[in-house]
Amino acid sequence: MTAQLSSEQIRTLITETVTAALQAQLQATAQAQAQQGQQQQQGQQPATAPTFSMAPGGGDQTKAWDFASDKGMKFYSQATKASDIKYDGSSEKLHQFLNFIKVRASTFGMMIVLDKVAVDNNKTRSVITEYGSISHEQMKTHAETYQAEDNRKRQASGMLVTLISNSVLPDVFDELMQREDKYTVKVTPTGTTNAVAREDGAMMLYQLIAMEEQYEDGTVTGLEHPELNGLAAEKYKVISSKKEWKKKSKQELEFIAMKAELEQHKKKQLTQQPISDARKGQSREGRQGGPINTGEWAWKSIAPKEGEATEKKFKGKKYIYCPHHGETKWVLKVNRQGLVHATSCKARKEKETAAASLTATTDTDQQYADALSSVIEDENINKPVQQ
């Protein structure tokens, strides 16, 4: 017969069995967790905290952008997208264009090649805001510090070349291309022995600014004949595209208009039917006299003295004094068309118009306006005046 276990033995057996089962379960769980940890280490690395940046192109400037990735391609496309209003090469629009470049470069990390250009005395300058204090040689030295490397600065320079090319009008780009040697540097890439030529974005912007500045302020000096001829051809192309070639200034147009008016008046005078000798010297009522105040009409050329009447009656007609008709001082108070001279004097209105045109003009404008006023006055003197 099998001996029966006591209650104490049964409790001991149950405790041992449960303990063994729990130990086995804990060991299995530990092995599973260890295997999972190994798989995670072999598969993907744990995420790291992002580097703080104020714009998409910020972050760690020592790391190159990955333009081969989807994010990198989108970044490059947005960074080099053309300006809505393309730069026409004019000095008036240059400031606006530079502001556009500054905003885009700040947003997409291209300022690393536009700022801190080394100049004399360990100082640095910005291409955009301090162009005038940077020389071409200093720009060249600046570009050579990064063009030989595969780094972010060289990438930023390349993006800048594309951005500028996309954001200027075709004729401005053609003009820039003629200066390509001035924004190209020769460097020997790290790990190689052969020199290569590479376009630099910062130098390209520098040349774009210089191109307009030199034309406008007349600082194109010290050039050989071939280079000077080339620059002249460039400038002709630019001003032709702006429709400024042989464009008349405001003063020239005013003088041409004045001269044309005078020539037309002279032509009209020459083509008028000459008055026969038999009719010369007669009074206006007898179809005589013309514009010359002689004989009994001589009084018309004499202005009233201070205190004398400015209105008189002669041969049944009323005359008033008017100082705006050159030699003739007295005119009909009411002309044959029924117009009251005091309110409808054309000579006075013409002089007032000429005087108004003198407001806010330059000295040259003043001379032209005076000449025009003189011509108008001469015409009024020679006009036949109603007797």
TrEMBL record:
Residues 37-51 have a biased composition (Low complexity). Residues 277-287 have a biased composition (Basic and acidic residues). Residues 37-63, 265-296 are annotated as: Disordered. This is Uncharacterized protein. It comes from Seminavis robusta.
